[in-house]
Amino acid sequence: MLSLLVFTPIAGLLACWVLPARHARAINLVTCAAALVLSVVVWQRMDAAALGSLANPLAERAAWIPPVGIEYYLAIDGVSLALVLLTTFVAFVSAIASWRVEKLERGYHMMFLLLLTGMLGVFLAEDLFLFYIFWEVMLLPMYFLIGIWGGPRRQYAAIKFFLYTLAGSVLLLAAIILVVLKNPGEGGRLVWAIDHYTALAASGHALLESGLAGLAFVFMFIGFAIKVPCWPFHTWLPDAHVEAPTPISMILAGVLLKMGGYGLIRIAYPFFPATAMDLSTWVAAISVIAIVYGAFVAMGQTDFKRLIAYSSVSHMGFVTLGLASGTDEGLNGAMYMMLAHGTISAMLFMVVGVIYDRAHHRDLDRFGGLAWTMPRYAMFGSFAFFASLGLPGMSGFIAEFTTFLGAFAGVDRWAAFVALLGVVLTAAYYLITLQKVYLGDTPAVYKDPKHYPDLTAREVAVLAPLALVTLYMGLVPSTAMDLYMDVARGLTRTLAQAASGFPGLGLG
Amino acid sequence: MDLGPLLPAVLLTLGILGVIVTDLLGRGRRPAVPVTLALAALAAAAVAALGIPTGDGLVLGVLRADAFGVVFAVFCCGVGFVSILATLRGEALRTPGGEFLTLVLSAVLGMVMLAMSADLVMLYLAFELVSIPSYVLVGMRRADPRANEASLKYVLFGAVSSGAMLYGLSWIVGLCGTTSLDGLGAALANGAASEPAFVVASVLVFAGFAFKISAVPFHFWAPDVYAGAPAAVAGFLAVASKAAGFAGLVRVVAATLPSVPALGDPLGGLLPEGGPLIRAMAVGALLTMTFGNLGALRQREIKRLLAWSSIAHAGYLLLALCVWSPDAMAALVLYLVAYLFMNLAAFLIAGIVIRELGTGDLAALGGLGRRHPGLGLALAVVLFSLTGLPPFFGFVAKYSVFYAVLAKGYVWLAVIGLVNGVISLYYYARVLSFLYLAEPAEERTLRLGWPDRGLLAALVLPVVVFGVAFWGDLLEWARRVGPAVFGGG
């Protein structure tokens, strides 16, 4: 079942390759729909017990490279499920948004599907080696998607993205090998299963001696932080986002950034709970810097897309802030922020894409009064803005609210106060942008309905589902929270034990 | 005395004679005959090598046909085989003459001897038997001034470093009173190793090998030589010659290391523990990786770029060697096998591109990926694999090396190596950006025959297949060389 889910996009990719290029976009859409349906079926098959543990009937496990103990091991629990659902959903709407790609159509859709396999694989792989493979597999299509189909500075952005991510992942690889090496299983056999190490660490067994544990945790943290991206590892993001085509920006912000958070929650924190808690003040500090700095920089942008990109940096700060607190509420907030930001940022990038398609520029100072000529567009645009700035009733609010609960309950209370400043700034830059783009007088250029038509049916089909989910997640947060809370509580227990029981490392 | 282990060498010698005779008799009218003969000799030698009953015994007192020697013998025969095929389809698109085949076969013969040698004199002779044909191979295209320059440079550098090595060997023999590698170990254990002269001798010997494997700072010849030589010959030098150099180095280190006392540790655990040779190799590995990769960043011509990249790869191989554990030895073999496929494929593509476009300038590759999806895909796979990205063979190889390095606890050595991998991504990805992202300067289509495609597929498919599956078995196979080097098997 899980293999089917992961490799459905590969089947679509082969179909794209074999069938005429004009069918590629339809195949892409159908494949993404199939993946979405499959992930919902998986969801339906999971009961409360399955959500709380990886050891459930859906897991698939087979020897892959026996001499070194590497397995083909896919498994799912609530955290994975929540992110898999987000992935297939965002991929589906992005596939709709990709309908009008004209350059090298076949190649684009093949890369898109390869990317989807990589993303699903990362969220489902429970063997460290397999995880790393999927992690890197995802890199290749992204490089080409930005580099071939991107904006004017696409080559620079693609290489920067590639180099940054690879730099992070080699550190991750070094840390993974260290962990595997120092913890051989029975008879000196190597073990690569993630849940094996999670269980070991949860039982109070330190995976590495203190100095090495600090090193390995820092390596892993940097590896994942580049993806999140945490300040100061975020500089690839604005370039990549701005140059990527709209649907790819949606996936980049909606799903790819979540892999960093997922890695922290699934691997870095559970493996080294004591080190993580020792360093929590540092993590909290870079989180609030990201939140406040991201918001300030966003406020200073005149490029619409760059503004959204920096708002992502700012919002992802909440994810690490929640994690750093090590409390139930904090983890809840971190996970919820990932899901909420996934849909909201996808919506925001689509909103930018819509106007860029018409105006061919993104200069905020040259827009104005679009609410009068494109009312439906203004409605969705302002909806996305309000969702992102955390208006109650939408998912962003729940995420920020629970994160703050967690941060106030945790040790670094000061961080929560500073982060509040970020919320105010966020409201400020969104309201300013709202005013610049939608309100005021409409410059004459935008009054021409032939060049500036309101949203088309296709664009509504992209934005409406995202908006509905945002609203639903804002009104009925328990649906999503029930998915991952069991796993999150397990992690908090480990972290709490580690903070009190295990010896410190003298690194904090 | 059992002469069975000599069979590969005998077959290669017969092949050399057969090629000379048929070439002379055919007077170049039927060039296919010597080519077939040469290929058959290489294939037969490889099969014969596989059939050798491996053991610890000496043949004629100077050769040892253990698992390690056999693996390298088969490896070098394979590279020779592919290089001859690649020459058929390379820049000149012509059947190579008898002299070319003779030289390749002689070099392979030297490599086989080098990998099996158990005596310093044998080792040096084999070393020269590899070098001298290589000098001529580089200068084969007599009309091309660049080839002449390359050949001359190669000879001069080669002569100097070979002299240094011979000088170093003479010191060692003077210290130990024997030329046999086994005797060497015993003599060193009896106190010869603590002489300061031994450190000097070790460094001199390493210099000779460093030239052969193009390790920094003995690498200056490589870019010019690779750029001047035909791509197929460059591939042959970059893979087979390098592998043979490593085989010889392993032989010397294995003989001397166990009896050499470890040096002090001035750098706080950055370098591996061990004697002067190990230290020299570790420093060489770090320098070679770093300078190889930095040098490659600025290159604008594909053969020069591949030359610098092959220098960097020599650094990774040295890294595996300086760790000196059975794991690392298996990683070295695995890396060389991966390197064979990746690098020969890369040089083959370079040869085809130069044949068709008349230039190896990267800018000339513009838009090639779109007009020739197959060739573009192959090059993309090869370059990503050279970078060490999964799911390709190159990743498995790099992973094995870094695994071995970390298993010994050298975290910083591994981190420097991994960071180097990131640097290398930049120039490999730059080739791809010319291939796919750049707008074509002029529309030019390559003529790719089915032999081109077939040969390319044969080299690229293993890069993918072994990246995804079966590499566990390959690693098991590679681990068999461990006991031969470390004893206990």
3D structure, described in words:
The complex is a heterodimer of chains A (508) and B (489). With 508 residues, chain A is mainly α. Chain A has a domain of 197 residues. Chain A has 22 helices and two strands. A two-stranded antiparallel sheet of chain A has the order 1-2. Chain A is globular, with a radius of gyration of 22 Å. Chain B is an all-alpha fold and 489 residues long. Chain B has a domain of 168 residues. Helices cover 74% and strands 1% of the residues of chain B. Chain B contains 20 helices and two strands. In chain B, helix 15 packs antiparallel against helix 17. The longest helix of chain B has 32 residues. The mean pLDDT of chain B is 86. At the A-B interface, helix 6, helix 7 and helix 8 of A face helix 16, helix 17 and helix 19 of B.
Q: What share of residues are in beta strands of chain A?
A: under 5%
Number of strands of chain A: 2
- Count of separate DSSP helical elements of chain A: 22
Poorly predicted sequence stretches spanning 5 or more consecutive residues of chain B = none
Major β-sheet annotation of chain A: 2 strands, antiparallel
Structural class estimated from helices and strands of chain B: mainly alpha
Distance between the termini of chain A: 43 Å
Mean pLDDT of chain B: 86
Order of helices and strands of chain A: HHHEEHHHHHHHHHHHHHHHHHHH
First-residue to last-residue Cα separation of chain B: 22 Å
